[in-house]
Amino acid sequence: MSANGSSETGCRSEVRPSNNSCSQKELSITASVISMTVGIFSNSLALFILIKSYNRIRIKSKASFLLFASSLVLTDLLGHLINGSLVLLVYSFHKKWETFDPHRIVCSVFGACMVFFGLSPLFLGSAMAVERCIGITRPIFHSTALASHHMKRLLGLLWLLAALVAVLPVLLWRTYKVQSSRSWCFFHMEEPKDWLDVLLPLLFSMLGLLALLLSIVCNALTSCALLQARLCRKRHCRGTSYHMEMICQLLAIMLVSCVCWGPLLIHVIMVSTRAKDERASSSLLMVIRMATWNQILDPWVYILLRKAVLRKIFMLFQSCWGPKSHNLHRWQCSMLHSSLETSNSGAGPTDCRYPSRLPLPDTAIQTIT
Prior knowledge:
Protein name: Prostaglandin F2-alpha receptor
CATH superfamily: Rhodopsin 7-helix transmembrane proteins
Keywords: Cell membrane, Disulfide bond, G-protein coupled receptor, Glycoprotein, Membrane, Phosphoprotein, Receptor, Transducer, Transmembrane, Transmembrane helix
Distance between the termini: 98 Å
CATH class: Mainly Alpha
Membrane topology: Multi-pass membrane protein
Helix content: over 70%
GO biological process, one term: inflammatory response
Order of helices and strands: HHHHHHHEEHHHHHH
InterPro entries: GPCR_Rhodpsn, GPCR_Rhodpsn_7TM, PglndnF_rcpt, Prostanoid_rcpt
CATH topology: Rhopdopsin 7-helix transmembrane proteins
């Protein structure tokens, strides 16, 4: 509370500690503006790419995947817009919540948005992993039972579940609390009054960890199924390339979610189940900043991990290797392809002959002599 009272007067005095607090405040505002701008730009670009792919695609399974991916990016975009605007509002009033929010309405909205835009990407990421796992391991069931309207209903249910967890503290008269940094609102975790103050943050963390665990299991099963199909040489004429593209995107999303959201979810459990600790309160702000990077990194997964981009990167590296290695790589690929065709056709080793051993025409003989 004392830091809040000195935030405005600290910039006017000539005392060095106050100047440090003023510079820290300006640095926090600058970091918030940069994070908000980069997040809006990244998610807008990724949303444009996904909507363009969704309108052009003709494959049902990939259309379902792109529907969830577009919804995930749209959720991240709205999260940056709403939460970033609330942060700028708090800093514009010098973190004096008693001045602009005497009835804790803005704090309740801020806390609910933090929970909703935190759980929704985790839920959507796990739903994408489950959908791809069913589509690859059980393709007949996926094509018959999982129609497009089922996917849209599932999407609405996931958003509804995240919204229910977000408004649950308000419905139970457990309003969100301004955190120690005075710049955001979250669950009332320090010095809980009763079991509800412990249950609500635990519910948030357990649902998030369950979504991460489900994503890890489903992505592992899907990757093993694709690897087994590759080893068994089960080459499908359609679907293999975009399956690999989606799996790369899912693995990248899972990795980003685990790195960004894992520390926050575990930290909330630790803070909720033990006594008040000033070190834990200060580290909570650090892990929440790590979690906000999830909304910035998610869209770049769809921007960078696309077939067109990956193909250009591969061609760039291939051109840097030089023409000799390029010709060697083409020769190895042609030899591997011819050996696979020979083994699939059932021909013996005597049928495998090089074109150079065929009879040469007379003109070629005259040229050589």
